[in-house]
Specification:
Length: 325
């Protein structure tokens, strides 16, 4: 090799290394100055754990500094976390409110500090204007409505004359609990076959799903035709109780769940769950994009709902691709 050729190859290599470094930097540090404080509810479900992971990954991909606090299912911990974010003077605050009420004071404090607030996953209830910038989360009413519509179709296909339903709800006064219930009730309203025998709070927890199912089986026994459960975790807790009581879930009792995590989809494929309405936890990318806009003083869409679908025994379940949570 001539000296000239040697230097030519070295310079090509150097330029390539520089280009690779530059492109990595653009990916890693797209928003180097942005500090986002995020208060997560806890770790009550595979959904929640998947949601946290998605937000962490999205922050890393966008080069956003994330201050993440886990509230361990307590509203007072979320309020304390938001106060810490204000004290740190973060650029943007995001949080998933465990329940809808009780946020006015701390959000007034964020507003006075000039820090925009994004609601992630769940909504709040307030009389005051302008405490938050937007909501990024599922259309829970639509999820409940899709669950109810499925039940009407299922009752038609089985030729059922009476349908006795027990409902295991999510945390009382949380947005998914209120709206999944309202959507479901609206979808079955006017169908005289349908009776909701009892609605009971399972707090989105597997243990409470099991405990409530034991109680419901003791109280209503073989009169139960349908279990409508507001999330996969509670459904997965309820199923062994149904089997222990001598019933076959998916056949003797119609099982309807919400979330669409991998474990529930695997059980759907085995026929022990009849229907799972998707609720996607993958909100991280849109959260980061929205935080960037807010920091830049740009306006954002007031409500952003992701697209969601329904998985059920009406379809070829072997075609459902891996869920990732
Ligand atoms: O707010 C979304 C709900 O919260 C999910 O359905 C549930 O699994 C989670 O705990």
């Amino acid at each position: 090799m001539t000296v000239k050729k040697f230097y030519f190859i070295i310079s090509i290599l150097l330029v390539s290394v520089l280009l690779v470094n530059c492109s990595n930097e653009t990916e890693q540090a797209a928003e180097p100055g942005l500090l986002l404080g995020f208060s997560q509810i806890g770790t009550e479900s595979a959904w929640r754990i998947g949601n946290t992971r998605d937000i962490e990954e999205a922050a890393e991909n966008k080069g956003i500094n994330l201050m993440l606090e886990n509230a361990n299912q307590k509203q007072e911990n979320q309020i304390a976390a938001i106060r810490r974010f204000i004290a740190y003077q973060v650029d943007v605050i995001a949080f998933s409110p465990i329940v809808e009420d009780g946020w006015d004071n701390v959000l007034e404090e964020a507003k006075s500090a000039g820090i925009p607030v994004i609601l992630v996953d769940r909504d709040i209830s307030t009389e005051k204007e302008g405490l938050t910038s937007c909501l990024i989360g599922a259309d829970f009413y639509k999820e409940g409505f899709m669950a109810g519509e499925y039940l009407v179709r299922k009752a038609d296909s089985l030729g059922l004359e009476h349908v006795n339903i027990v409902e295991i709800t999510g945390t009382t006064n949380s947005t998914p609990m209120r709206q999944r219930q309202a959507g479901f009730m609206d979808a079955i309203a006017g169908d005289e076959r349908m009776t909701v025998m009892e609605s009971i709070d399972g707090d989105f927890l597997k243990s409470r799903g099991a405990e409530n199912m034991r109680y419901l089986l003791e109280t209503y026994g073989e009169d139960i035709d349908v279990v409508y459960s507001h999330n996969d975790e509670m459904t997965l807790g309820a199923l062994p109780e149904i089997e222990n009581a001598g019933f076959v879930p998916g056949k003797d009792i119609i099982i309807i769940s919400i979330d669409g995590g991998q474990e529930a989809i695997d059980v759907l494929k085995k026929g022990k769950i009849n229907c799972v309405v998707e609720c996607t936890p993958k909100l991280g990318k849109i959260l980061m994009e929205t935080a960037v806009k807010l920091k830049a003083g740009e306006s954002v869409q007031a409500v952003i709902h992701p697209e969601e679908q329904i998985f059920s025994d009406e379809m070829d379940t072997s075609k459902i691709s891996p869920r990732g949570y």
